[in-house]
C-alpha cells in the first residue's frame, strides 16, 4: 500500500514548523492526528485512499463550521475555518467535473441499478473524495427522475 500522502503531510508539517507558519502547523498536525486516530480504529495503517477520506471529512467539517459561523455573524471565525479548508484542499486529488460524475451515474443506471441507495453505493467509491457527496446525491436524484 502506498503511504505517499501521509508522508507528504508529515514532511509539509515539518516545513511549516520550521517556517513558523502557525496556520499550516495547526491544520497539518490536526489532520495527522485524525489520520492516526483512524488507524487506531482500524488497527492498520491507512492507504492513500483512506487518508483522502479523512481529509475529505476534515474539509466537510470546516465547511459546515464556517457556514454556521457566518450565519451567527462571526465572519472572522468563519474566515479562519475557510483558511484551514484551503490548506487541506491542497492535499486532495484532482477533482471530478459534474459531467464525469453524471457519466458514472448513467453507466450504473444502464447496468440495471435503479435504486437510490444501491446507485450511491456504486458511484461513491469511484468518486473517492474527488467530488462532493451532496452534489453527487443531487445528480443521482436527477438521473433517476428522468
Briefly characterize the structure:
With 146 residues, the chain is mainly alpha-helical. It is built from seven helices and no strands.
Characterization of the model:
With 146 residues, the chain is mainly α. The protein folds into two domains: 86 residues, Uncharacterised protein YqeY/AIM41, N-terminal domain (Hypothetical Protein Yqey, Chain: A, domain1); 47 residues. 77% of the residues lie in helices and 0% in strands. It has seven helices and no strands. The radius of gyration is 18 Å and the shape is globular. The termini are far apart.
Question: Distance between termini?
Answer: 41 Å
- The DSSP helix count reads 7
Order of helices and strands: HHHHHHH
Q: Main beta sheet: strand number and arrangement?
A: none
**Share of helix, binned:** over 70%
Subunit organisation of the chains = single chain
Mean pLDDT score: 89
Shape: globular
How many strands appear in the DSSP assignment? 0
**Proportion of residues in extended strands:** under 5%
CATH class of the largest domain: Mainly Alpha
Amino acid at each position: 500500500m502506498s503511504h505517499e500522502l501521509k508522508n507528504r503531510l508529515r514532511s509539509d508539517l515539518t516545513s511549516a514548523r520550521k517556517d513558523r507558519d502557525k496556520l499550516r502547523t495547526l491544520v497539518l498536525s490536526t489532520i495527522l492526528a485524525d489520520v492516526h486516530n483512524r488507524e487506531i480504529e482500524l488497527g492498520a495503517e491507512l492507504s492513500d485512499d483512506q487518508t483522502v477520506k479523512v481529509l475529505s471529512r476534515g474539509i466537510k467539517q470546516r465547511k459546515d463550521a464556517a457556514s454556521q459561523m457566518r450565519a451567527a455573524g462571526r465572519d472572522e471565525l468563519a474566515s479562519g475555518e475557510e483558511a484551514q479548508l484551503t490548506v487541506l484542499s491542497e492535499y486532495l486529488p484532482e477533482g471530478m467535473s459534474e459531467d464525469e460524475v453524471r457519466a458514472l451515474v448513467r453507466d450504473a443506471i444502464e447496468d440495471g441499478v435503479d435504486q437510490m441507495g444501491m446507485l450511491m453505493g456504486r458511484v461513491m467509491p469511484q468518486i473517492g473524495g474527488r467530488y462532493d457527496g451532496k452534489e453527487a446525491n443531487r445528480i443521482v436524484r436527477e438521473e433517476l427522475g428522468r
